[in-house]
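1st attempt posting a full record on here, be nice pls
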Amino acid sequence: MTNWLNQKLNAMNEIKKDNTEEKILLAAQEVFIQKGMDGARMQEIADRADINKALLHYYFRTKQKLFESIFKKVFSKIFPNLMELVHSDQPFEEKLGSFLEKYIDLLQRNPFLPTFILKEMNRDPEILAHIIKSSGVVPADIFAMLEREMDAGNIRQMDPRDLMVNVLGLSIFPVAAGPLLNIMFFDNNKKEYERFLQQRKETVKTFILNSLMP
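the predicted structure (as tokens):
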């Protein structure tokens, strides 16, 4: 009976811990988006999470660690899958389509991400590069995969960095410029704009593939 009760209490404590950590991460994300890394304050994050500052420091000792935890969590949803695609035996067209679908979905679920990254990479690009690489991304492996496709004659010869910049730029811009595009092109019809973003997966894939035909 005692063992069962202890197990029950431990399980409840773990749930409470997970809920507290999630509250902190959500609150910190909001503050970081509004204030940026430099402008964010731990006290404001604690207030927004409805906890005291001492508890916040118990979970995350520094603002830097909190910042990294948030974006590792976001990036970890896509980048490990990206590297699986890179090392898979799928045809290049399928790899590109899978990546665009996952990447554009990630941006739609986290529309703050492009603008925030653009702001923060001008402040300290080393931090973001570290977070992305620690999430499993190996640029050299991506470039090697593209060069193999070129050597096999599946896609035309080009600088693989150009290709990656084209893919990322075509995917990121419609989300980063979303508020303006929604007004200018969609008359503030959010459903139409969301439908447009969904269609971008196929549009970008077709555009990139056509540009790569040998």
